Fold this sequence. Notes:
Strand content: 35-45%
Number of strands: 13
CATH class of the largest domain: Alpha Beta
Amino acid sequence: MNKQTFFVYKPKQWNSILFQNIQKNSYVILFFSEIYFFKLSIPNKFVQLKYDSNTSVYIVHTLYIHNYYRMFFAHLNQVFNVFYRPVFKKIKFKGKGYYIYKNKRNTITPQFGYSHRLYLYSYFASVKFLSKTSIFIFGLVKTDVLRTGFGVKAMRPINVFTGRGVRFSREVIYKKVGKVSSYR
């Protein structure tokens, strides 16, 4: 027999209800918060399920389990972590006359030397200005933060000769050397 124990942590802001469905021979856990809810069904053929209220952990102890359940519980833990682990990205830009601003609805409008305005809408990521040439993007979902960051970066990519443009913090930028005639 293969013994396996899984620990599913329930965050503080979430509530849960544990049901035992006798007709389908399974446990049903209903997780809900102010915004989200989902239902988790666990077959109880080889399962012992306990909830520890001190640590807010569901303990699932099984005698036999295959890899699909391991992957399922790993993804379930990732789902909870996504909602409460913020992601940060810092963006810096360099160039004369380059500046960036936003309005109340997180619409980012950079002024990077174009004759027309470019708009970037960031619905699920927040933007904070650290200085005149650096901004801080943060949110709960990594893809939303990266999408906003790459959107700003795509508006003015780095010029390899002058080094001007938008880059992520700690990104290494290599400059190309100019023509030989410029050294004479």
